[in-house]
């Protein structure tokens, strides 16, 4: 038993080393200047300089950062609301197109999203949304819906039907039944959908590159290209930008991890 615990702790330490070491190197490099990085890339900085972080204030970095926050937040909220509502009839209501519609969403998960770049680009221009943050929200939400609906549908199917029957006896309508009784029990699914889509949308590059064309409307993946010169890259400056760009992901992940545990406890009434 003791040997098993030691083995598990050793495995956990090795995993922590592999996952945490790159992040520590990134943060460590962000406090160096270019010359010190080229001289000693693996050592601690001689003097912890904030110049790389201060230089971000003199660039368009925080405009890109703000755009990413707006696009990602709106997209994730819409995905959660729409996918949760769409999954309810698929999981709880019986009608002829139930299974075909569910299969259709499964097929939607298999479509390579970048094969749709040209028609989406043309549609965006026709709608007058090109080079705006609103041009990104539509594609992000649309391509996130299939997998999110599948996740919610699976969770809804596992909830006891007695909850609905009791609510209907008390005169609860379908809308209130879903949002007041069923949706709070879907916290594990909501946390999963939110984390998955937040990470994907926050890091998405190709649609942001194609559908925007100015620093005013670009997102962080586009803004990080500014740190690439024609013949060189300011690595410490890039690491400072990546450190700040990764902070929202870490905060959302740790916050949602706690919600997953709470949701599992809240949904443990099945029996």
* Strand composition percent: under 5%
Share of helix among residues? over 70%
The CATH superfamily bears the name: MetI-like
Q: What is the helix/strand order?
A: HHHHHHHHHHHHH
Please tell me the overall pLDDT: 85
Q: What distance lies between the first and last C-alpha atoms, to the nearest angstrom?
A: 32 Å
**Class in CATH?**
Mainly Alpha
Largest sheet: none
- Count of DSSP helices? 13
**Per CATH, which architecture?**
Orthogonal Bundle
Instruction: Detail the poorly predicted runs.
Output: 263-271
> Rg to the nearest angstrom?
23 Å
Structural class: mainly alpha
Written overview of the protein:
This protein has one domain: Orthogonal Bundle (MetI-like fold), CATH 1.10.3720.10. Helices cover about 70% and strands about 0% of the residues. It has helices at about 1-30, 35-40, 50-55, 60-90, 100-110, 115-125, 135-160, 160-170, 175-180, 185-205, 205-210, 220-225, 235-265. The longest helix has about 30 residues, at about 60-90. It is globular, with a radius of gyration of 23 Å. It starts with a helix and ends in a 5-residue tail after the last helix.
């Amino acid at each position: 038993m003791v040997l098993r615990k030691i083995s598990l702790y050793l495995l956990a330490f090795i995993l922590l080393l592999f996952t945490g070491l790159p992040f520590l190197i990134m943060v460590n490099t962000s406090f160096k200047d270019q010359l010190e990085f080229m001289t000693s890339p693996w050592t601690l900085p001689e003097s912890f300089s904030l110049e790389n972080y201060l230089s971000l204030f003199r660039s368009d970095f925080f405009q890109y950062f703000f755009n990413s926050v707006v696009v990602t937040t709106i997209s994730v909220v819409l995905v959660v609301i729409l996918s949760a509502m769409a999954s309810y009839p698929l999981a709880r209501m019986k009608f002829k197109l139930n299974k075909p519609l569910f299969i259709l969403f499964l097929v939607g998960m298999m479509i390579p999203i970048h094969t749709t770049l040209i028609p989406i680009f043309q549609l965006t221009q026709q709608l007058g949304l090109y080079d705006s943050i609103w041009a990104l929200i539509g594609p992000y939400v649309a391509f996130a819906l299939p997998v999110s609906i599948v996740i919610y549908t699976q969770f809804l199917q596992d909830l006891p039907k007695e909850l609905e029957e009791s609510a209907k006896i008390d005169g609860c309508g379908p809308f209130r039944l879903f949002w007041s009784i069923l949706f709070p029990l879907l916290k594990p699914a909501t946390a999963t959908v939110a984390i998955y889509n937040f990470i994907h949308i926050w890091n998405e590059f190709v649609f942001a590159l194609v559908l925007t064309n100015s620093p005013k409307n670009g997102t962080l993946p586009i803004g990080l290209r500014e740190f690439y010169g024609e013949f060189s890259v300011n690595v410490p400056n890039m690491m400072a930008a990546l450190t700040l760009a990764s902070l929202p992901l870490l905060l959302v992940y740790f916050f949602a991890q706690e919600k997953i545990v709470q949701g599992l406890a809240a949904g443990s009434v099945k029996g």
